[in-house]
Amino acid sequence: MIEISEQIKGLIGYLAETREKLHALAEVSLKEFLTQKFIVSELEAMECKPRLVETGVLCDILSADAKHITALRCDIDALPIAECTDRAVKSNNPKTMHACGHDGHTAMLLGVAKLLTKVKLHKNTRLIFQYAEETNGGAEKMIEAGCLEGVDEIFALHLCPELEIGKIASTSDAMFAGKVEFAIEVFGTSAHCADPLKGRDALKAAAWIYSQFEGIKGKRKNTLTFCGSMHAGTSFNVVADYAELKCTIRYFNNNDANFIMGKIRDMLVEADNTFATMHKLNVRAAYPPLVNTAAGLKALKSVVEIEKCLPRYTAEDFAFYLQKTDGCMAWLGCKSSYREYYPLHSNMFDFDNATLCNGLEVFYRLLTRNRFASIR
User: Fold this and answer.
1) Does the pLDDT value for residue 187 go beyond 60?
2) Domain spanning 6-175+291-373: CATH 3.40.50.1110
């Protein structure tokens, strides 16, 4: 269990109140306007100087004699989920909810800023309030805007309802899967069902593609291939001239992803040759696997006891930061014996605000450690 320092215990009121306000504001990706405004107002009240990146926020807390920058990142967007919790403060938006703990993540980073107004460090700290984590593009857009310029290391925590409160878990292996999300369009020719040979059946081709989809991964047991949607045709009695499949692959090894995407391309050519159709492959989103760097994980282990976690097939765009600089993400336990368990993305997800003190303690220890021991 994490031992909480007295100065951080003194911030529980601020952390809880801030989390409640953020929870009420809940806004989906790319529409975090009120959330951004709230973050900026809090930072400016602390005499910090935030700057905007789309609907995200960057804020440096600098020391006059420091040469290195440690970045801390949180995600600020909510999900298009109607909240069904019995908590006193609920989302003000009927079909939007912080069901993944981003209100807690953001409250912890504002807590860091609050703490650093009282405790001056001989270190530079950059706070990254990232937008659009739940969709696509947030991390990459923040990086393009310069959020990692001059940064030596970056850390993030993610609430984990399966892990007991006060515990931290991470791994040196891939922590989250990489993903490729793509759509397959199939183009045929319509004809009346009474004379189907005059048409080219996009539905039949799409059904064949679907039947082949799971088998393309071969013996790659640690990969997931999934087709979540298929739409085709327009009528009861007309050969379909168009079909679309929406699919994803999840993987922990880039070679596996390249192999599977190659197999998919070969399969689509075979479908064209078999059914006289044509295809178009549209890649909508691609994330790399999230792999903590050795130096980043070493730094985290130097300040707190870490349990080893298993990889998950979910994707997390913190992976993009780790492709650019040293760093580590870890699970922050929020499971308690007196609160019923609900998973992330559940419309019943909630957590004890005391969890926020644990996260703030970990961040503060990272900022105050002898970081030169773990910088490359």
Assistant:
1) yes
2) no
